[in-house]
Amino acid sequence: MKMWSGRFRQPLDPEFEKWQRSFPYDQRLLPFELAASRAHANALGHAGVLSSEELSAIVKALEEIRRRAEDAPEFLNDPEAEDVHHFVEKQLAALIGPTGYKLHTGRSRNEQIATDLRLFVRQSSDTLQNLIADWVEAIVSRAEAAGSTSLAMPAYTHLQPAEPVLVAHWLLAYVEMFLRDASRLADCRKRANLCPLGSGAVAGATLTLNRQAMAAELGFDGPTANSIDATSDRDFAIEFVAALSLLALHLSRWAEEMILFSTPAYGFVELPELYSTGSSAMPQKKNPDLLELVRGKAARVMGCSTTLQTLVKGLPLAYNKDLQETQEPVFDASDTVIGMLPLVTGFMNTVEFNDAKMNQAAQSGFMNAWAAAAYLVERGVPSRLAHEAVGKAVALAMERGCDLQKLPLADLQAISSSFDADFHSCLGLTEVLALHDVPGGTAPRHVKRALQNARERAKLLR
To answer: How confident is the model at residue 6 (pLDDT cuts 50, 70, 90)?
Structure first.
């Protein structure tokens, strides 16, 4: 029996009936549907709608449905159930007879799906927070191993070598990205953690139900404030997937940089064989398949975000059947990111860095030029004129095929009389790194503090 069939005289077109069903994918919401149904049953009991015997029978039957679904997945093979709500009602009626139909008293599927999805987002957010913590800790561990004193690499702007930085400083840049992602998810979870139960179809329940008690039983911070909004709102889902799309974007940026750094042109990264594959044609190849798939799956998650926003943008209040289409993008985005995070964590734990190549690259390409300009500024040369003088020195060094450190003092003084004998000693890697002596900079003492701070913030994610 359909949950809505009384008014209809003709059966649904068989193809339409099959096409409009959501149970093939929303059955994954069964644990949340059962928990929310139990909370509603308890509220009906307190309202005097269910006797103590009826309440006990419903609660026991809900537990039996949960047990059967866990013990035998084929239990969910129901070609007639429209959705997870219909499935539970059918099973209740099969287990306890007409009493099972009493559970739907005073409620609507509109509030049920809104509640189930919020519970799903909440659980997924908690899972993701722990996975992000693993991922961030893996990056922090590699940064700690790189150290805060000597191992350096080029930092790039416009993909051109810019200045040397500590490898730890580079890795901590990613830590900041993913800590922001974790913060966004926590913020989203807080807004999602309100309970729609008691909202009815659109105007509120037709019974005086204790909404506070239902919310508390399910671990919500409280009930939603407006029944129209509660039954039609999918902001929490949109925000959740938007946060995941930004997390996936950050994973994609990391993957792209690791791909670049693994090429012979850079040679900073040796791809771990555990996360790479070969070519079916070229025996020498080792391809960065994990990293490339991370880039690809980031596009998939971003697509889910676009789908959700497009779905909702033109909907009038309140519930519309279009909202059924919000479920799969939420599930897909969550599954995709949850699937990626353990793999990138494993990659980060096993990838090898070529310390010698990184350090060598950090000391070539005139990346000490800004330090050279800073030397002149300290001696009273205006910044713009110092920039101009060092630019001329770089051009001269390029003509001669040497570094700034190799230019004779006489040639430097021909460009600016402010160059002195101590100039060359300011251009070494150690001196250039130490020059960036501000919080957030790559000076070793600040990177040491940043490592400690990152470790502490990563622990807080759990």
So the answer is: low
